[in-house]
Amino acid sequence: REDRKTWKPFIGYDSLRIELAYRSLGPGEPREGEAAAVEPVCVRSGLYEVDVVNAESYPVYWNQTEKIPVMRGQWFIDGTWQPLEEEESNLIEQEHLNRFRGQQLQESFDMEVSKPVDGKEAIHSLKLSRNHVDWHSVDEVYLYSDATTSKIARTVTQKLGFSKASSSGTRLHRGYVEEATLEDKPPQTSHIVFVVHGIGQKMDQGRIIKNTAMMRDTARKIEEKYFSNLATHVEFLPVEWRSKLTLDGDTVDSITPDKVRGLRDMLNSSAMDIMYYTSPLYRDELVKGLQQELNRLYTLFCSRNPEFEEKGGKVSIVSHSLGCVITYDIMTGWNPVRLYEQLLQKEEEELEDRWMSYEEQRLLEELYITKQRLREIEERLHGLKASTISKPPVLKFKVENFFCMGSPLAVFLALRGIRPGNSGSQDHILPRTICNRLLNIFHPTDPVAYRLEPLILKHYSNISPVQIHWYNTANPLPYDHMKPSFLNPTKEPTSVTDSESVSTVPSPTTSPVMVRRHYGESITNIGKASILGAASIGKGLGGMLFSRFGRSSTTTPQTLETGKDGAEGGDDKKATTVGTPPLPHSSSGFLEPTGRIRHRIDFELREGLVESRYWSAVTSHTAYWSSLDIALFLLTFMCKHDQEDTDKSNLDTI
Predict the structure, then answer these.
(1) Basic and acidic residues composition bias: which ranges (predicted)?
(2) Domain check: are 280 and 214 in the same one?
């Protein structure tokens, strides 16, 4: 029973193994030695264990303060099939066996029997503390309340001609409605998904566990409906990296004023994580916290599932919000020191170009030679270390798919100086040798989410992200077959300078995507401004670096505007730089193959037909966890190879 709700049955495979462990205890209270001898039973696809002695369950991969109570159900209430409390159930069971042991039951369970037979007298009765039980036959057992109101009601209804059983009795059944079988067993996990939280976890430490549970439950529904014939079974594991970090201790709390304390505490527990991450002092602590937790979970999972690696099990990561940025930095090994090295190199180049005195020139040459010598010594030292100690990989597994949800990763990359290229490949921002596929999922009104594709090819800021299919869409077009379409197919892209940017006048043939996105623009921009502000407060070297080399001669200040266009999907203002080649634009409104990204990265949820854009801007950043559309989307990509193999074998059979 979770969260003090109704009792839920374990599957047959789990129930029978728990029963075996229970019977191994023997009758009576277990002694101290016996309690240690009974090993916990692994249940619920290996996510939980059951302590049979203390009748409680607890998770294996994450911490949970409250244990989950477990009950051995014997007598069940008709209709709801909820078990009677154990104390009453044991008394009824004992009385039942004493009175009816050895009597023949009916061979088959007839549902008609559940209707009470009027006029039958009770052949046996048992008094409990607040109830009593009547046996009308060996398998007709009724529970009655002994409360005064129930007694009065029984008297009245019996005078009206109704039987005692039909008027106020509750039919009891010995044993559950379904028989437990070992065949009722979960499939072996072939794909694990680590679910990484973003900011705000300090405020509610159990949130990522609840969110992952929601995602797991929705994925199970989708798996049963669409992927039941596939061998792939996906398991979701929460990665809670924030609570173990000490960071500044309570220094920030001590400098927080008392007025509107609730709001300030909320900001300290959420937005402060962005500032911690952009701080050179605490950034490494956050990165190591997540990295160690990912490796711990993977090692623990493999130790409990030894066949996972042998059978080529795959690993994907789903990250939310700031978690996307930290995960990306762990996978790529990005560090602010790189930016510092680039800054020094830039300064050297600038010094070479200006006039200087003979003495200054001589000292600079000496400095240059010394730096060269230092680099050579460092390389030799690293070479010696590498030959003796092999450095372990940052992550103990290869990432198959990296799903970003509501991610500000694009704006972090833009502030680090990443600019669009012309390769049309994911390798421009995340090499496929590190991660096979990068997918950026966002809600159209999520104020924290940004697009990634315009950082690979600039003209993708004018191309709509791929629309995620509704989960109940009949025969949806596969994502790989969907052609990129322009946000505004009626208007040819212009080639003007930023100062001469023109406004697009919506025409009657404007794409409906364009029209629906214009609303709610202002509130989305408020959210973006706050993210940019928080990122810029603590970015340290950032201002110095980007003023020097962030904008190259081929880049204009339109970069942030591009990011804005990408996230909005359809701003009115569209401007490109002088010298930008014309987009590979066809009259059909689709992009020509020559200017395409090979594997699409930006995927957008469809807006609800009745949702308010202003309200969804507030709620959309946390709306991903229970979405059936996202569950189907995730499973589509994770079960892709398995699906293709099945389709191929079906074709071969035909």
Answers:
(1) 562-575
(2) yes
Residue 373, amino acid: R
| CA pair distance 407, 320, nearest whole angstrom | 6
Q: Do 349 and 287 lie in a common domain?
A: no
**One of 168, 270, 316, 321 is an active-site residue; which one?**
321
pLDDT in tens, 44-77: 999 999 999 999 999 999 998 889 999 999 999 9
Determine contact, residues 147/130, Cβ cutoff 8 Å.
yes
User: Long-range CB contacts (< 8 A, 24+ apart) of 585-594?
Assistant: 585/486, 585/492, 585/493, 588/489, 589/485, 589/486, 589/489, 589/511, 590/483, 590/484, 590/485, 590/486, 591/463, 591/483, 591/484, 591/485, 591/486
323 and 268 assigned to the same domain: yes
Domain count, the chain: 4
Do residues 1 and 46 both lie within one domain?
yes
Whether 10 and 144 map to the same domain: the answer is no
Strand, helix or coil for residue 624: coil
Closest among 324, 400, 406, 396 to 640, alpha carbons compared: 400
User: Which of 493, 511, 509 lies closest to 501 in space, CA to CA?
Assistant: 493
Dist CA 450 CA 558 (whole Å): 15
User: Are 332 and 452 members of one domain?
Assistant: yes
Shared domain for 327 and 209, answered yes or no, is: yes
Q: How confident is the model at residue 305 (pLDDT cuts 50, 70, 90)?
A: very high
Query: pLDDT, tens digit, for every residue of 323-381?
Result: 999 999 999 988 887 677 667 777 766 666 667 788 888 888 888 899 889 989 988 88
Mark whether 456 and 320 lie in a shared domain.
yes
- Using alpha carbons only, give the angle 227, 228, 231 rounded to the nearest 5 degrees: 85
Between CA 403 and CA 409, with CA 404 as vertex, the angle to 5 degrees is: 140
Rg of the chain over Cα atoms, rounded to whole angstroms, equals 32
321 is catalytic: yes
List own/partner pairs for 256-263 with CB under 8 A and 24 or more apart.
none
> In the numeric block, which tokens belong to residue 412?
């972090």
Separation of first and last alpha carbons in the chain: 48
Residue 219 lies in a domain: yes
Helix (H) or strand (E) holding 89: helix 86-100
pTM of the predicted model, to two decimals? 0.76
**Are the C-beta atoms of 237 and 297 separated by less than 8 Å?**
yes
Apex 180 CA angle, 177 and 185, nearest 5: 130
Establish how many alpha carbons lie within 13 A of residue 267's alpha carbon, considering only the half-sphere containing its beta carbon: 12
What digits encode the pLDDT tens for the residues 258-267?
888 788 877 7
Report the distance separating Cα 552 and Cα 419, nearest Å.
Answer: 9
Maximum distance among all Cα pairs of the chain, rounded to whole angstroms: 120
- Nearest Cα neighbor of 211 from 197, 221, 224, 190 is 197
d(CA 236, CA 193): 5
Tell me the residue range of the domain where 157 lies: 74-100+120-175
How far is the C-alpha of 334 from the C-alpha of 418, rounded, in Å? 12
Phi, psi of 571 (to 5 degrees): -70, 155
Place of tokens 């990432």: 399
CA dihedral 618, 624, 628, 629 (to 10 degrees): 90
Give the torsion sign (CA, 505, 510, 511, 517). positive
* 451 falls within a domain: yes
